[in-house]
Amino acid sequence: MQEVSINLSEHFKLQELCKTKTGIENVPNEAQVENLKRVCRWLEQLRRRWNNLYGEGNDPIVINSGFRSPAVNKAVGGVPTSNHLTGCAVDIRCVGIEQALRYAAILLDISDLNHEDYDELLIEQKAHVVWIHFAVKPTGNRRRTNFKR
């Protein structure tokens, strides 16, 4: 069991990437924490570029969902093969579709500039709520990009 107050990166704590409203314990193991750290490296670059281009200088990147234990994943209706189960995925809150498109463009640029692939970059929307599902695995990244309603 990991202490949930540890820093994964400069601006992201384990606690925020494990939060859940289900009331079910949601604590990752060491391998899952390492996967979350990998995702946070991308999130730090996204935050920096967003703030340089569009933000107020210190706008946070807000995570709706990160790591999910099997019980949490089932409770929230996640698919059994979700990258959230391994700590390889986050859902990034967006203020509308325009911000989602800008975040996606930045993440694509990061991938190209760093010559690193991601596994999934999905812009998702339910009613008026928009988020980006973003995943990076240690190996076997598919560079799957899509818009889902």
Question: On the 0-100 scale, what is the average pLDDT?
Answer: 95
Q: Which spans of ≥5 residues are poorly predicted at pLDDT below 50?
A: none
Order of helices and strands: HHEHEHEEE
Q: How far apart, in Å, are the first and last alpha carbons? A: 36 Å
Estimated structural class: alpha+beta
What report would you give on this structure?
The protein has 149 residues and is of the alpha+beta class. It is 36% helix and 19% strand. A 5-stranded mixed beta sheet has the order 1-2-4-3-5. α2 packs across α4. The longest helix is centred in the first third of the chain and has 24 residues, at 30-53. The protein is globular, with a radius of gyration of 14 Å. 32% of the residues are buried.
Describe the structure in brief:
The chain is 36% helix and 19% strand.
